[in-house]
Structure formats: C-alpha cells, structure tokens
Amino acid sequence: MLLIPCPWCGPRAESEFACGGEAGIVRPGAPDAVSDAEWADYLFMRTNHRGLHREQWWHAHGCRRWFIVRRDTVTCRIDGVEKMGSAGAAP
Amino acid sequence: MQGAPAMQRYSIFSLLRNALSHHERWQAAWRSPEPRPAYDVVIVGGGGHGLATAYYLAREHGITNVAVLEQGWLGGGNTGRNTTIVRSNYLWDEAAHLYELSLKLWEGLSQDINYNVMFSQRGVLNLGHSLQDMRDIHRRVNANRLQGIDAEVLNAAQVKAMVPILNTSPGARYPVLGASLQRRGGVARHDAVAWGFARAADARGVDIIQNCAVTGIRRENGRVVGVETSRGYIGAGKVGVVAAGNSSVLAAMAGLRLPLESHPLQALVSEPMKPVIHTVIMSNAVHGYISQSDKGDLVIGAGIDQYAGYGQRGSFHVIEGTLAAIVELFPSLSRVRMNRQWGGIVDICPDACPILGKTPVRGLYFNCGWGTGGFKATPGSGFVFAHTIARDEPHPQNAAFSLERFTSGYLIDEHGAAGVAH
Amino acid sequence: MTQPARLRHGGRINRDRPVAFTFNGRQYLGCEGDTLASALLANGVHMVARSWKYHRPRGIVGAGAEEPNAIVQLGEGSRTVPNARATQVEIHEGLIARSVNCWPGLEFDLLSLNGLFSRLLPAGFYYKTFMWPKSFWRHYEHFIRKAAGLGEAPTERDPDYYEKFNAHCDVLVAGAGPAGLTAALAAARSGARVIIADEQSEPGGSLLHARESIDGLPAVSWLRRTLAELAAIPDVRVLARSTVFGYHDHNFLAIAERLTDHLAEDRRRGPRERIWRVRAKQVILATGACERPLVFTNNDRPGVMLASAISIYTRRYAVRTGNNAVIFTNNDSAYATVLDLLDAGVRVAAVVDAREQPRGPHLEAARQRGINLMAGSAIVDVRGRRRVQAAVVASLGADANGLRGNDTTVVDCDLIGVSGGHSPVVHLYAQSGGRPLFDEGLAAFVPGPAVQTQRSVGGCRGSFALADCLREGYEAGTAAARETGHDAAATLPPGPGTLERHDYTLRPLWRVPDPPGHARGARQFLDLQNDVSASDVLLAAREGYHSVEHVKRYTALGFGTDQGKLGNINGLAILAQALGQDIAATGTTTFRPNYTPVTFGAIAGRDLGDLFEPIRLTALHAWHVEHGAEFENVGQWKRPWYYPKPGESMHEAVRRECHAARNAVAMMDASTLGKIDIQGPDAAEFLNRVYTNNWHTLKVGQCRYGLMLREDGMVMDDGVTSRLGENHFYMTTTTGGAARVYAWLERWLQTEWPELKVYLTSVTDHWATIAVVGPRSREVMKGVCGDIDFGAASFPFMSFRDGTVAEVAARVARISFSGELAYEVSVPADYARHVWKALMAAGAPHGITPYGTEAMHVLRAEKGYIIVGQDTDGSLTPQDLGMEWIVSKTKDFIGRRSFARADTARPDRKQLVGLQSADPALVLPEGGQIVDRPQWTAPVQTTGHVTSSYFSDALGRPIALAVLQSGRSRIGQTIYVTLGDGRVAPATITHPVFLDREGKRQHG
C-alpha cells in the first residue's frame, strides 16, 4: 500500500488512486503521417524502465486529477510528483 | 556431448540402492561448470522456460554446445514463485494450440526427463458468476472442443459436487452459476520442473551457469555475437532470451523495445492442512484462484499490482482483496491462517499472450510476455523456442506470437472475452 | 486432577483461578495465565505431537512463536482452529485441544511406521520415484495426500466476524520487551503519537521472566511502573496479543490483534480479531531474539527444550519442566537457566558447554551454586523415545567438526535445555526491504542499513544484554520522536540505568559431530516440524542444490508454520560448511510476511457477503422487489431481469413483456446507464475526438448515438448523447462501462488535451431514467405530461424536450433501444417512484407492462443492436459490426489510425451477422461455435460464434446474432452451431436486423 503524494491533496493511500502507467507517451500529432511501426510503438511499446521512472496516477477517489509521480520501480521510493502541464512535464 | 557423465537414473531401485549407502553416493543433479569462451547457443535465463529450451535444443535438434546463463539461482524467478496451475483451455486457436502442445508434453514429462515433476491432473474449474461469464464459458468450451481440447460446462450443482466447501448459494454476492472444467488440467511441482529440465539438459551436455548476470548483448552488423556477463564475455552464435521479469531490460541491451509492463504479482499459502480442495478453482469475477498442494498448503494467487514494479513485492491491499474473495467463495476457510506471501514480476503483454520468436537483430530470439500464465507453458514454450532458435524460423505453434503482431494488429486477446489469464 | 509439575511459588499465573481444559480427550486443570503449553507441562505432559513425516514423538521445545512441534487443533465444529501453537494458546475454561497428524492417536500412531522407512525417505525422494508406471502417479498421490497437512480445516461457515482499523502514528514500536518499552517511553515522553504492539498476552517480553532488576526494582515491578506511565500519556496505544506481521512499502505495517480467543466461549463479544493497518512516520523494531537450538542426534526427543523456554516456564508460569536436567550450551545465557532451575529445586545433573574455557557472569553465579560443568563437550545422542532418559556426552575436537576420541559419558536426565546462541528476529527488518548481514562475533544475522525510516533495537539488532536493550530503546525512541518534530525528551530524565553486562562469548556450533558409528547427520533435526535433518541438507549440497533457496525447497527446511525460526540458521551454516564457503556468502532465504500465520477472515475483514462488492440499487429497486422481479447482476448493479407472474416461467414472462412492448406499451428502469454531464466551450470538439462520428453538427435539443473506440480501433463503449446547450452535453454509457468511460474521458482531457476547456461530472445516480416503449407509448406520455407536444413531427426521433411529467420537472428523450416508438423519461432520482407509478397508472388502460433486461435484450437483438461486451469482446471494429455509417471519414478520433493496420484492414475479418436456426424450436446456445460442416474432427479453426440468442415473440421463432469470418458475404449459407456436447445444429446466415429493417416503427 504505497503512500502517493497527490500534488493537490497531499499524501494519501494508494487505494484511492489508479495508476495509469508510463508517462511521456506522446500521441502522434498527425496519425496518418506515421508508419504502422511508429503507430505500434505509440500504442504498445513501453520503456518499462527498471529504476526511477515517471508514471501517471489518477486520484480517482479524491480530487480526480491526473498527475505524474517519479518513482523507483525497484524500491518503490517516490522521488517527487508533477502536476499535469507543469513546466517541462510531458504527459 | 561435452563429456558429461551418464545421468544416474532415478527410480525406486536407485533409491533403495542409495539408502544402503546412506545416500552418500548420489551424483550432482547438474554440473556447475565455468563458462567457456563461446557457445553455439546461449540461453539467457535459467528458469523453467530457459532450461526447457536448452533441453529441447539438445534432444530435438542435436544442439548441445549450449549454455544457460542464470543471474541468480535456477528456477528462482517466476518458475519458483507461481501457483503451478497447468491447463490449456484458452479461447483463441493460436493460444489453445500452444498451451495444448505444452499440456501434452506435461503428460509425459516426468518419464521423459526422469524427474518426477508431480504433474497432477486434478482438473481446473473456471467459475462463472454472471450470465455473461456463462456465455464466455460456453464460447470457450465450444472453441476448445473444436481444437480437440477436453472441456465441459458444469452447472452449479455439478460444481458443488466436485467442491463441497464452495459457496454455491444463490444468495451470494456473485453466485456461482456454473463453471468450465478441464479435467486434464491440474498442478505440478514448480521447482521440480526447473531442476528436472536442468538435470536432463546437463546430461546432454548443456552448461548450466548460475550467478551469471548478462549485462550486455554484443552485436556486429545487425547480428548477435555474444553476451557480456558478470563472469566475462561469452561468445554466441545465437542468443535466446527467456528472462521473465527482466525482458524489457534485456531488450534494451539490444536496442529493442517491447510491449511489456512488469508488475508485481503476489501469491500466498495457508498453513498445511488435511486436503479439503481436490481440484484447481479459478474465479475471475471475484478475483481468486486456489488449489491445495500435496503438502496440504492452500496455494492462492493474488491479483496483479496496478503499478510497475521490479521489487518482487506488492501491496497489502491486494492480499486483502484476494483473501476476501477466497473467504467469499469458501466461507469455511475463514479461520484458516495465511502462512506466507511472496511476489514475482510478471511481464504483462497488451493481449495477455506471449511474444515468442525472432527479433530485428539476427540470431537474437525473445521469449517473453507470459504475464501471469507462463508456468503451464514451460515444456511447450521450450519446445517451440528451441525450434525457433535451431531453425531460425518459428514452429507452427508459435508463428502467431511474433513481435510483428503489434504492428499488424493481429492480437490474440486472451483477456478480452475469457479473461482467464492465469 | 492436580498439577504435579506446578511450582508452589512464583510465576504470573493465578493459582486461585483454576481453569479446566481438555487435551486429547483428557481433562486437565491449569491456572489463569497459563498457555496450553505451560498448563500441559504443569500436568507433566511432555509428548504432545507427532512429527509430519516420520511421526516421531515430539514435545514442547519453545515458549512462543518459534515453537515447531506443539501444533494442535483447537475446539470443534464451526469454531475449530487448525494448527494452533500450544505455546501461544492461552487456556480458558472449556478449551478443547487435540494433537494433529496422528492416527488413531498420539500415543499409538500407526503412521510412525514411516519412521522405519526413514532411510528410504530422504529429502526429495519423491522426485526420484513414483514415476512408473506412468499412469500411476494419481494413485501414488492419493496416498501422499492422505499423509498431507497437519490440522483440519473447518467445514462450516465461520460464526465469528473480524474488523480492521486504520491508524496513523509518529512512532510504531514492534515488540514490548525491554527495548521496545523504553523506545515507546522515550517517544511518548517526547510527545509523539505512539503505537506499541506485542504478540504476547501481556507486554514485557523477557522482563516477564528476567532475573535482573532495573532501577533497583525487580524487572516485573519496573515493568508495571513503566506500563502505568505509558497508560497515563495520551496518544499512546499499547496493544497486547497483537503481532506486527507485515512490514510493507512506505512504512505501512499490518498488525493482527487477537481479541476473544483467550476467553471462554460464553464471554466472547465483538469481533474475533482485528487487523490494524498502520502508516507510521517512524518504526522501531524491538522484536527480540530467538534462542538457537543445537543440532545433535535425536535432538527431537520430548524433553529437549530451549534453555530460555525452560526459564520462561519456570519463572513466568511456575512450571517444573523436569526433575533432573542437563543443560547444553555454547554461551553464557543458558547459565541463567541453570540458576532458574536450581532456584526451583530442580536437579541439574550436568552442564555441557561446547566452549573449551567457558566464562561469563551467569556461569560464575552458577559455579558458586555448585554445578557439574563438562567443558569442551557436546551432547551427541539422546536416549529415550517418548521422553528424554539420558544424554550421551562426548568431548569435542579442537575445530568442533569431530570428537576427541570415541569415549562417551551417559548422563541420566529427563530434561535437556539447549542454547546454541541467539538469532535476532530480523524478519520485519528484512520485510521492510533490508538485507541482514552476518556478524561473525555473534555468529548471527543482524540488520544492515535501514531502507525505510526504521530502527532496530535490542535483541533484534544483536544486543542481547538487558542494559543495552534498555539504552538502545530509549535512544531510538528519542531520535524517532525528534524526526517527527517531537523533541521534548531531551529535557527529561535519562532512561533507566542498570546492571551488569553480559559476556557474550560463544563458540559457534552449527552441528554437533555424529556419535561414533552413526551415518552423517541422520536424525539430527533442523526443522522439527518438517522432519528435516542435517543429512538432508548434506544430501542437497551433494546433489548440486547449492543455493540456500534450493536447499529450502529441496528439503522443505523452514517451510513449516514456524517458518524455520529455530533451525534455519543451522541449516544454512551446515550448507556453507559443506560447500566450503562462509555463511555470509551463503546468505539467508528471504524473510517473508507473515511473521506468524494470520487468519484469512481477519485479512478479509468485513468485505464479505453483501459488502464484498458494493451493491448498487436504482431508486426504483423497492418497486421491482414488490412486484416480484428476478434480478440480474450487471456490474455492481442489481437490475430487474424479468417480472414473472405467479406460475409463469422465465420464457413465458419474457415473451409477455416483449409482446407488450411490440404491440402495446411496456416500461423499463433504465437508470443504471452511466450518465456524464459534459460542459465547456470545447465540449463538442471533445466529443468529436472520443466518438467516431461528427458532433459539431448536432443541434441543441437533439440526441445522437455514439461509438467509442480504444486507440487500437476496437469498440469499447456506446451510448446516446444529447446536446442540452451550445456548450453542454449529456452522455450516457453502458451500465458496466460507466466508470471505465468516465476515467477514460478524464484521462484524455487531463493528460492529452489539456488545452480543451471541458468539464466532466458523473451524474449516474442523480437521474432516474424510465424507458416507455411501444406503439401506445405516445398516449401514455400524453397522459402524464401536458407541456410537451408529442406530435410525430414536432418531437421527432432522436430529440429531447424538457417538460413536466407527473408534476415533476423532467427531460423526455425520444430514443429507442427496441426499434419501437419510445421515450426515455429522466427525473431527479428522488422522484423516480412517483413518476414510475404515474406512468404505470397512465399506461394501465393500454396494458402497460414492466420489463426487465432479458426482454430488453430480445427487443434489441430483433433489431440487430449490439450490446458492448456481449456481442463485442474487445477484438471488433465498427466495420466488423457493420457500423461504417457511424465512422466519420473527415476527422480524426481515438482509434481511427488503427483501422489502417494490416490485420485490422483485412477483408475477411469476423463480422456481425444474424443466424436463423433450422429447428424452429431451438434457441441456439450463446457461445456455440460455428462450423461449416455437420461432421468435424478436431482441430477445426474457429471462425465465429453465437453472441446473442433468444426466442423472438415478434417473429415467433428463435433468432441469434453471431460474429463470423467474412460473415456478410455469406448471408444465405447454412452453417452449424456446436452445442457443447459433440452435436451441432444447422442454421442459416442472415442479415443481423430481423425486424423492421427500415426503422418505420421508431419513427412512427
């Protein structure tokens, strides 16, 4: 039961949240302009990083905001959070 | 063969003979050789799948200059952490054929490798709790029968007769309406599968090298030439990667991306008790599955944690949910106690089916993405992966499980309808 | 019924409160305060169990969680508990306990024959045999399973209930021994919020039997004073009978508190157990240490006990564990037991000390009392079967791996106390993610660096002297409190000062040499519960099972209910020695939760039965119940399935309901549909992106059907959305998909399109929706609503009007999921029953009939309308469903790009079709697969299946929907549907719309 520091509500139990997985996956701006392989990369391929990575969380049973958590996938240690659209934050 | 001593046969007679010498004369089940500079084939990952691959490379294809590299101890990944369910009642033809190939191998495996893997065909029940569950069960059972896979639909009374302690009351929150039954399904002793394949592969000359972590995959001109390891560089004509829980990490070493997310999956056992459950019972609707081992422990699979994790540990509330499901299904087990829990790392694929085949790097093959269901596929996976590596082309039974399917859209969606991805 | 081995004085039991209990059918008396183990010992009962594999007689070894042998079945019937540890069971009036895993009984156990064959049953023997003949495994296994397990699971529903508390604290202290108590005291004095939990019936740990004094007070008096001080401080919670059993990520710990099992059944009130789910800012582990056994031949005989357990039984429970003792040790701590025995008047025949030159403060004290000290020696064998009769002592060689000569001395005794040193209880530390390190000086694993905000103090960090425990605890408590912003402690009096230090010199002795003439390691037990001996570990090492994990799995070492708290460390040391490597390199197996077993029901808590999943009911639910509805679970909802009249079958009821909808008027509670209120200047653009069709063209007052895809192009949901205003839409989703769709929309809005000004609100529960369906529906509506013009042209299909229905402000939409003229009336949920009844009344002259989901399914199937999740399975595109008409070619939307992929663009994909059964009486089975020929032999490629199938009242025959490869081009062909039992049924492929393909009825 992780303790997720919601940037809007403060630390809350993981059971209030839904994890959206890897952050920073950008939808091609012009889908028709990309190849099937590039589209597949967007759709399915993941970095699945072992170590510190950025991931999306949704405070489903709280403020219902999506935000980004920087978390180590080995130790579960949370390094920090970002609000959506904050400086430099890719979704 | 590379001078491995003839394998000592296991039987009641060898057991008797060795008892006379106080069991002081048993040979090692496998050697622990130093890695050689190069092999024809290097298998990365000493779990059941990797060891089976090495065994079938030797047995089916005569390729014995093979090393299996294991970063920790044999069978220490998901092989030794799963709930040991074996079945082949998958929805889609491609998956059903792959798992059925495996199930047929299971049926003769102990004799084949001369190691009792205790494959126990005590039947697998998949419970249906809603009208849609039952539609899905009928669909899957009918599909299985078309593939020659044993499958039948039971009503609630028939389920109750098989599992008297199951709560089949119509007043339950999600009452049991019926189930599918695969009688040939069951459980096996997971460690024994790794050990038995290791011993049998070793006897055919395969080098099994533990505590040897792969840190790089060396390529030249688009072709794999060897692997960097914690024990030095090892040359390889071909490299087969079967490293569940680390697939993406190894893929990245070869510049590849995979459609995988690695998640914690937990399981737990009760204290050992006199057997009360004689079959395998799985329920997707209430998220619980259970069997009872030959030692008497109830073996219970929990759900997947929602976040990616390589830590082999998950969250407690997942265990809470799982035990609520178990007590909901089996109210008399409420006073039984949970002895131990543990976690594995499952590589989740978008269609809940594995990736098993060639990669854009020549001579490099990947076998990954089994999610929560890899154990049952162990012999079959090894069999077709060995074929793929030996012939540089997939076996008919794994042709559909290519990485290419994610580009073409030919997904084999095993959680779409049946949702029985364990 | 006296208690022959009860000491006359001392102990913490209440001699004035005798407690009657039953063990193996015999009545005994114990005292209030006894455990089952201490009460049995007080009655002179030593042999209490049979071992799992060889069924050897076994006695009580320990006094707590480490006990491997004394496993009993408690109680009978629905309240029975399997595998209870007698050392942790508090006796109460009427307690019934019996030994497990023996037949017919403990004294005479037929399965002890296994012991005769023990040489045939080494570790892993089953991997090597039972393979011939091939088909016989099931027969072999049948017998193996007969021998499986210890206790028996209850077979009746648990009459008790369980609950959970969530708690937050500054400092959680696990263990209320001396270190834990001073930690809690320091933190509490600092003003921190403290929870301290201890697994025993009362706090105190080793203080409950300690010989020492603290601050000039006997230990138990100091304990009383300290507990009183803690009790007086607010924000301190002391939990007894509470085991911290799991240490998870982010300092989340789980505690199991046992509330009623120690009480007589008629005194039990409230929940049986409670799980505390604690989030602690700081954690202090003070879980103490386990005494380590010594591994010698026949070390499992009843009467061989841990020295510390003897002290506990003697001083805390006032039990004489024997009359003539031999103590076998490799360190000083067991001499305290010698003193305790002498104080209790027990003869100590000899003290066998592995050390060449034993020393230590307890030894010195014992020496003054006169003891027969056999230094540099070891017990190599035990005589006696059901009870120790003598110890066989020999002189140890210089390196302890062999004996000095073959001479042995036989010392008669009925009790052997052993101490092989101490193993810090590092379980929780390891569970927190830490890696224990091997300390050569202590010959023990101790905690390494903390990985969470956690400290280990006292015995669990390898500090075995009481003075160190008290000091470390106080310091850690102070520091932990300070980290949480409470540092008042600095000004408070220093912690309790104290007494002499231990001299912890120990001669590691992992395995005593075999007695002359014995096979290596045979019957030298490491894991008493699983009958794992040193020879098993040596065999594993010989056979190549070199990892400590392999040894555990090959031999079952540490797999018991005690999880190897005693002998695991000996096993891995023996392995290390066999492999010629040091213990640190060999490492430990992973310490996993739970520390001790925890009841399933407690972990499940209240989330059972109706609370297993929330039950969602519509505002009209009571009406449905009153009118005899049968219900169907749809997601979390209970939906009326059909409304049988007395004596009516489901088939008859559904036909009647369908008949009313097609020929008169019927109504249905459609409130479970997901409803999302969508507002904002970019709302239309947003819908344009998430639906396949165009939404900019929808006018205010109109409704439109929408299909939602996943990004891979597959259908995920559908529903009708209305435009309430220029910037205001009202979306409906499928019942089961509501939450998923809402989350999906929010995600796209917030993460992908933050530039869109759109706001979503789930309003599913705010509105009740009633569908009024059938050719007479217009008349019914007119009867309850005077302010809407229901003219066919003025209120056309796919539009809505606001008005007043039965005096309630309502929105009336002219939409249809049945193909009939139909209206959906939405009112605030609180008015639902009133409006429903008004509609029923207005419809009565027309024969209005309530209908359920089954009739709804039939009506929509007659029209070829899909149900997402029934006719689709996540692998079908709109084109597959014949819904190209709803897919815009002029804009992008989620999933569109995926249509162009090779497989998705294939012409021979599965397509939605209709099926007409050749047998007019046969409703084809849903889930039946489609084959081309009536005879087939496996394997046959699957090409499609029946998704929906009903008897159509309107058509007077069965209809079915199916998905079938290239189905649309095969209309008219005959196929065969498998019936699941080898038979097939012929059917003709048809267009999926069976009724009114032109849609005249809904436009009427």
Beta-strand content of chain B: 15-25%
Biggest interface and which pair forms it? Answer: B-C, 113 and 113 residues
Secondary-structure arrangement, i.e. CATH architecture of the largest domain in chain B: 3-Layer(bba) Sandwich
**What is the residue-averaged pLDDT of chain B?**
95
The CATH superfamily of the largest domain in chain B is: FAD/NAD(P)-binding domain
How far do the termini of chain B sit from each other? 38 Å
Overall geometry of chain C: elongated
Taken as a percent bin, the fraction of beta residues of chain C is 25-35%
* Mean pLDDT over all positions of chain C: 95
Spatial extent as radius of gyration of chain B: 21 Å
Q: What would the CATH topology of the largest domain in chain C be?
A: FAD/NAD(P)-binding domain
Number of strands of chain B: 18
Could you say which structural class the secondary elements and strand pairing of chain B correspond to? alpha/beta
**CATH H-tier superfamily of the largest domain in chain C:** FAD/NAD(P)-binding domain
Q: Give the fraction of residues assigned to helices of chain B.
A: 25-40%
Number of H- or I-type helical stretches of chain B: 11
Number of alpha- plus pi-helical segments of chain C: 23
Major sheet of chain C:
7 strands, mixed
Query: How large is the radius of gyration of chain C?
Result: 38 Å
Assembly state: heterotrimer
Give structural attributes.
heterotrimer, A: 91 residues, mainly beta, Folate-binding fold, 9% helix, B: 422 residues, alpha/beta, FAD/NAD(P)-binding domain, 2 domains, eight-stranded mixed beta sheet, disordered C terminus
Brief write-up:
Chain A has 91 residues and is mainly beta. Chain A has 1 helix and 6 strands, in the order E-E-E-H-E-E-E. A 4-stranded antiparallel sheet of chain A has the order 3-4-5-6, with no helix packed on it.
